[in-house]
Design brief:
Elements lengths: L15 H14 L38 H11 L20 E3 L5 E4 L2 H4 L8 H4 L5 H8 L12 H12 L6 E5 L2 H21 L6 H7 L11 E5 L31 E2 L12 H21 L6 E6 L2 E2 L5 E2 L2 H14 L2 E5 L25 E4 L6 E5 L19 H16 L2 H22 L4 E7 L2 E6 L2 H13 L2 E2 L1 E3 L3 E4 L7 H17 L1
Parallel strand pairs: 2-14, 4-5, 4-6, 6-9, 9-10
Antiparallel strand pairs: 1-2, 3-11, 7-8, 10-11, 12-13, 13-16, 15-16
GO molecular function, one term: pyridoxal phosphate binding
Protein name: (S)-3-amino-2-methylpropionate transaminase
Enzyme class: transferase
Length: 513
């Protein structure tokens, strides 16, 4: 449950009809192009534009996805920049709710939502209104260097954010741009904190200052962050030393020789493998302790970073007992406990922060965020506030316009009771996936997850590829993770009717393999 906010709420419209009516009203009353909405007809400006609304089911107009227009655009893009990751080109003017429209006119049920970044789906009418306000529009176009000249309302905005969504017990925030730079700078905060503990009240020495400029100790100490196999924390040079999911992300880049522990590997179903999984937790925690002790001389561990659910590495889960054990080790060893909620934060697991499921003994030291929260950064305890200016700094230090969007997103999550929807519809979704798994045991196994943060594993990578490609041909967009798993990341507005559409088409695809 989100805590009581101090900013004023607006009227919330609950039904699809009301949503589309408001969207249409917004379209008529504002300049359309800056907000990603164009008239869909060729009538005069005085004529009413068609309403944006979801189709009843996916609509397919091209034989394949990507269609001919997407293929042509990709060829054009390839003359300018690398485009090997592009799947198709979207028409964001016509996308709405849980459906993304591509340039060939296909309306695709999106259960991946821009790598899990759209909490309210496409073109939500409440978000379309955010920058109609002149004050908000000025925050968008006069983007400040927040570390130097923030706007007059910035302290109140951050205070409201802390009051409404900050993990309980974390009273400070450092804003950033994205998930990678959030983790990168959180590492820096940990190293500064750790070194300050060793110095006591003493300031950095002249030797510290001079040696740091030469990348030598003591100014550049041999400290480390312990991470886990299968973990992913970003693609910047520092975070890559803690990311362990795919060689293509790391190949040819120098990396720190930091300790890497084994994340628990559970057997499913969980309720039928409790003894095995408890033993797995115990062994993995013992390994973490040994790695910390063995690294003490070469590269002392200043902190541990872990995802509540390993995302890119295969949607790997661990128990509440495992995370409690990790936190206990951090306290015993005097090191920081960093929980990476870049992908799991924002309500998709049924709680605003996934680590809330674990009933930890107090808050983590640092919680990083991005994606569904639109901006990046990390919440942290008081002792991780840096003493000297410019220790953690870059030009933007976040984006006020993204915080304006986040405020409206929080309004809708609260008023529409979307966390309740995630829990109720998520349970329905998971039950449906498990039923299909039982029917197609030779193709699927290990269905898992919380809320809308769900995954299932295919028998092999080739089978997964066939399933994902075929799903797209029938109008369903999903994601992949790990070696052979499919991941589902719908928007918080996903309903049972959308689950039914997916399950029906998923079943037909599997039956044809």
């Amino acid at each position: 449950m989100l805590r009581r906010r101090s900013f004023q709420t607006k009227n919330i419209f609950r039904t699809t009809r009301e949503y589309t009516r408001i969207a249409f009203k917004s379209i008529r009353s504002i300049s359309l192009v800056p907000y990603g909405i164009h008239p869909l007809s060729t009538k005069s400006a005085k004529s009413e534009a068609p309403l944006l609304c979801e189709p009843k089911e996916p609509v397919l107009k091209s034989k394949d996805i990507p269609g001919p227009k997407s293929i042509a655009l990709k060829k054009k893009l390839e003359t300018i920049q690398a485009a090997g990751t592009v799947e198709f080109f979207a028409d964001y003017e016509k996308s709405f709710g849980n459906y993304i429209c591509d340039v060939d006119g296909n309306m695709i049920l999106d259960i991946y939502t821009q790598i899990s970044t759209l909490p309210l789906g496409y073109n939500h009418p409440k978000l379309l209104q955010v920058f109609q306000n002149d004050q908000n529009l000025k925050a968008l176009i006069n983007r400040p260097a927040l570390g130097v000249t923030p706007g007059k309302d910035w302290p109140d905005k951050l205070s409201n954010m802390l009051q409404t969504i900050a993990p309980k017990g974390l009273s400070k925030i450092t804003t950033m741009m994205c998930g990678s730079c959030s983790n990168e700078n959180a590492y820096k905060a940990i190293f500064i904190w750790y070194r300050n503990k060793l110095r006591g009240d003493n300031c950095p020495s002249e030797e510290d200052k001079k040696s740091a400029l030469l990348n030598k100790p003591p100014g550049s100490p041999n400290l480390s962050i312990l991470s886990f196999k299968g973990g992913f924390h970003g693609r910047t040079l520092g975070t890559l030393s803690t990311s362990h999911t795919n060689y293509i992300q790391k190949l040819d880049y120098p990396a720190f020789d930091w300790p890497v522990a084994t994340f628990p590997k559970y057997k499913y179903p969980l309720d039928q493998n409790e003894n095995f999984n408890k033993k797995e937790d115990k062994n993995r925690l013992l390994e973490v302790k040994k790695l910390i002790d063995s690294s003490a001389c070469k590269s002392p561990v200043a902190g541990i970073i872990v995802e509540p659910i390993q995302c890119e590495g295969g949607d790997n889960e661990a128990s509440a007992e495992f995370f409690k054990g990790l936190q206990k080790i951090c306290k015993e060893k005097g090191i920081a406990f960093l929980v990476d909620e870049v992908q799991t934060g924002g309500g998709i697991t049924g709680k605003f922060w996934c680590h809330e499921h674990f009933n930890l003994d107090g808050p983590p030291d640092i919680v990083t965020f991005s994606k569904k929260l639109q901006m990046g950064g990390f919440f942290h305890k008081d002792e991780f506030v840096v003493r000297e200016p410019y220790r953690i700094f870059h030009t933007w230090m976040g984006d006020p316009s993204k915080l304006l969007l986040l405020e409206e997103i929080i309004h809708v999550i609260e008023e529409e009771k979307l966390l309740e929807n995630v829990n109720e519809t998520g349970a329905y979704f998971k039950e449906g996936l498990m039923s299909i798994e039982k029917e197609f045991k030779e193709l699927l196994h290990s269905t898992r997850g919380r809320g809308f943060f769900l995954a299932t594993t295919c028998s092999n990578a080739a089978t997964r590829e066939k399933i994902v490609v075929t799903l797209k041909k029938v109008g369903i967009q999903v994601g992949v993770t790990g070696e052979s798993s499919i991941r589902f990341r719908p928007a918080l507005i996903f309903k049972k009717k959308h689950v039914d559409i997916f399950l029906d088409r998923f079943h037909k695809v599997l039956k044809c393999l």
